[in-house]
Design goal:
single chain, about 400 residues, alpha/beta, Rossmann fold, 2 domains, 6-stranded parallel sheet, 16 helices, 16 strands, about 45% helix
């Protein structure tokens, strides 16, 4: 019954159109998010991209008929295990392959870097340049959800990501550590219009979820996460009570009033609470840019904080590695005592980030990440494949 539902869901997302698809040089594969808007804006300066939404397949009857020969070819040539899951993946890859072929692009990129359908499609496509952009933290939880992924031209945050993923079974034809795309976009397009000085000592990036409270009894992972969220709030509340001079802000992650009420009741007026605004996606980035230290459980924004000159500190006292932030141990606290100690230490050195060992969390790249992506598309849609390869090689990470 479960398999029947999945098949029904897949075919309900297939749309046969009676038209020819216009050729485009660049295709962006993704979902509706802040990344979609920002990436399309950046690429629009060098090309007119077509957006393909993950999980939805729009193609004409000719391409639809080619899906099934492609599916058979994938099944027999990929040496995949014969199972419903494998056949399901192969069928989705066949559909995505034909959708992409409809536009005859030169470049296809995604910000869904751990999407196995995209990665598999890239490996069976010739004469098209594929690359992917890291959009989120990649911890043990993500590795277990999508294991042993083979990445194509992977633009990632930093060297630590490469080392961690490599040790966890991931491979890439090219590791390209360029920093955070979103942080660089924010710095260029938002912060240049405002002078963000360090108004706060600490920014807490909220990871509150209503489901943690409603489903924690039946879900061990939710229970652990809820416990860490509550414990981190206790740590920060105690710190602020004992150190009245420390200024803090909290960037909420939802528009749910229950999240706001939780923090308001906990902290009263001891810190500024910044509500999430659906019409303005940069609230959290602004809060981090204005803060010396950024704290959270394992938010992606911990990895992006250094690009905004804020020191990250992840918190996890549970001992569960699934809750660890994707950071070196230096930037993790595993007890309330260690949290307080590292906060005070980081406040002392926050004015001189060069004194910190941040080699794995920074890159040698001096070009903003958004500009690297823009140029990659520019060279990719050009007439010289060699120039594209040479451009990417400038940022390629050589593993020792």
């Amino acid at each position: 019954m479960r398999y029947f539902f999945k098949i029904k869901q897949l075919f309900s997302n297939i749309h046969i159109l009676n038209k020819r698809f216009p050729r485009t040089y660049c295709v962006v594969y993704g979902c509706d998010s802040i990344y979609k808007k920002s990436i399309l804006e950046v690429i629009s300066h060098v090309s007119t991209p077509v957006f393909i939404e993950a999980g939805y397949f729009y193609l004409n009857i000719y391409r639809f008929l080619l899906v099934f020969p492609t599916f058979i070819k994938i099944v027999f040539k990929s040496e995949m295990r014969w199972s419903f899951r494998s056949f399901s993946i192969a069928l989705k890859v066949a559909f995505l392959f034909q959708v992409i072929q409809s536009y005859k692009p030169r470049v296809v990129l995604t910000y869904l870097d751990n999407d196995s359908i995209f990665q598999f499609t890239a490996r069976i496509s010739s004469n098209i340049k594929f690359f992917c952009i890291q959009n989120g933290s990649r911890g043990i939880y993500d590795i277990e959800a999508v294991p042993n992924l083979n990445l194509v031209n992977f633009f990632c945050f930093n060297n630590y990501v490469i080392k961690f993923l490599s040790q966890s079974g991931y491979k890439a034809n090219r590791w390209l550590p360029i920093g955070s795309f979103m942080s660089s976009f924010f710095i260029k397009h938002i912060s240049e219009k405002s002078n963000f000085i360090k108004e706060f000592d600490i920014c807490l990036v909220s990871q509150w979820r209503l489901s943690f409270y409603l489903e924690s009894k039946n879900n061990p992972f939710f229970y652990s996460f809820k416990k860490m969220v509550d414990e981190l709030l206790d740590c920060l509340s105690t710190l602020l009570k004992l150190n009245a001079h420390i200024k803090a802000c909290i960037a909420l992650c939802s528009e749910d009033e229950r999240e706001y009420s939780l923090y308001k009741d906990k902290f009263l007026d001891r810190c500024l609470i910044l509500k999430k605004d659906k019409n303005y996606e940069w609230t959290s980035y602004e809060a981090i840019a204005k803060s010396k230290i950024t704290i959270s459980i394992n938010s992606t924004m911990l990895e992006e904080a250094l690009d905004l000159n804020s020191i990250p500190l992840g918190y996890n006292s549970s001992g569960d590695p699934l809750l660890n932030a994707s950071l070196p141990d230096l930037y993790l606290a595993n007890s309330k005592e260690q949290f307080t100690e590292k906060i005070h230490h980081n406040l002392l050195v926050s004015s001189n980030l060069d004194s910190l060992d941040i080699s794995d969390l920074k890159t040698s790249n001096t070009i903003p990440a958004y500009k690297v992506i823009q140029n990659a598309v520019k060279f990719g849609i050009g007439d010289s494949p060699q120039l594209f390869e040479e451009y990417l090689d400038q940022f390629s990470y050589c593993q020792k």
